[in-house]
Specification:
This protein has 345 residues and is mainly beta. It contains 2 helices and 23 strands. It has one domain: Tachylectin-2, Chain A, CATH 2.115.10. The strands form 5 sheets. It has a 5-stranded antiparallel beta sheet with strand order 1-3-4-5-6, with no helix packed on it. A 5-stranded mixed beta sheet has the order 7-8-9-10-14, with no helix packed on it. The longest helix has 5 residues. It starts with 18 loop residues before the first helix and ends with a helix.
């Protein structure tokens, strides 16, 4: 990342997605396109929306500086519970809320109001739904790919619910077709680091792997006595076939694991885009400022910090659309930064 002081500009923007962006899933960011090199030049251009600049001719592209842009504030409609995980598929943003409510927003229209509201098949009082990612797996020919939801407190903190969302005549329904669990009882003996509590399940954009992101110790400051010893843990598994209703992953299923230094508290939600894993942190308050971190999954390293502390709202989840990294907050505000800034050296 460019280490010069970045310029942060927050402006309201209209929503416009190009056909390039509508052509695939963006939830773990399944939209293609090369990541441009970061810029050392600070720009004051405030013309921002959801247009995918990756669709511009190569000779007209310019590397972008670190700029935070507010794209839109969504309305929750009839939903009363808190904003949690979100993911995007073909121009539709699926916003989850605590207990498993879901609002669908049409990004093409630019409307802040949901076009549909439904309950997840895994909905329950304990389902925090704090992270979700669309996969590239289509169940029984369904055009909407399977959605992987970090279920949270509903019986097992290591649980992931796999949702098959069906749309008919503008109405959406969802069925949980699979539950994933993690049994890490053999991790330490095999030389792997076990997680504290509640890791996030994040599907890769290649359709082959699922990643678990978490930490060695709890990240909500209650275990700050171990801050210097804490580590981020990232473990890679093959994505299980959706044919089985219950899958328990064990140490025998680990493809690889790596750990990195720990430098920010309060884990939220994340996404995988190509070789990068992006994750949101913080509550937007002084003691837990908003932050984003990126990992290079091939190099197995944590990249330089992404400073979004000027967003004084609790971050919840993130996704990649085109060449931008979007993140949602507890106040239903959708922001973005250039992807090149997020992965820059």
């Amino acid at each position: 990342m460019n280490k010069k002081a970045p310029l942060f500009i927050m402006t309201a923007a209209a929503i416009l997605l190009t056909a390039c962006m509508r052509s695939g899933t963006t939830a773990g960011g399944q939209t293609g396109g090369n990541v441009p090199e970061p810029s050392a030049v600070v720009s004051e251009d405030t013309k921002n929306d959801l247009t995918d600049s990756a669709s511009l001719p190569e000779d007209t592209k310019e590397a972008e500086p670190m700029v935070i842009t507010k794209a839109i504030k969504f309305n929750k409609g009839t939903v009363k519970n808190s904003v949690q995980g979100m993911s995007v598929w073909q121009g539709k943003l699926f916003q989850l809320y605590h207990t498993g409510d879901c609002n669908v927003f049409d990004l093409d229209s630019g409307s802040p109001d949901p076009i549909a509201t439904f309950r997840l098949g895994s909905a329950s009082d304990g389902n925090h739904a704090n992270n979700c990612n669309f996969s590239t797996v289509h169940y029984n020919g369904n055009p909407i790919p399977l959605l992987y939801v970090v279920d949270g407190n509903s019986g097992d903190v290591m649980k992931c619910s796999v949702e098959n969302i069906v749309e008919k005549d503008g109405k959406y329904t969802s069925e949980r077709i699979q539950t994933l669990h993690l049994d890490q009882s053999g991790f330490a003996a095999a030389g792997y680091m076990p997680y504290w509590g509640w890791p996030s399940w994040i599907v890769g954009t290649d359709g082959e792997y699922i990643w678990l992101h978490g930490a060695r110790y709890r990240t909500n400051r209650s275990m700050d006595a171990y801050y210097d010893e804490n580590r981020y843990i990232i473990t890679k598994f093959r994505l299980p076939s959706p044919d089985k209703k219950l899958v328990v992953l064990t140490v025998a299923d680990v493809v690889e694991q790596f750990t990195t230094e720990y430098d920010v508290n309060f884990t939220q939600g994340g996404t995988v885009y190509g070789k990068y894993l992006f994750y949101t942190f913080g509550t937007g308050k002084t003691d837990n400022p908003s932050a984003i971190r990126a990992w290079d999954l091939e190099a197995k390293k944590l990249l330089p910090p992404i400073d979004v502390s000027e967003v004084t709202e609790e971050l919840e989840d993130c996704t990649v659309i085109g060449d931008r990294l979007y993140f949602i907050t507890q106040k239903s505000n959708l922001y973005y930064i250039p992807l090149s800034s997020a992965v820059g050296k």
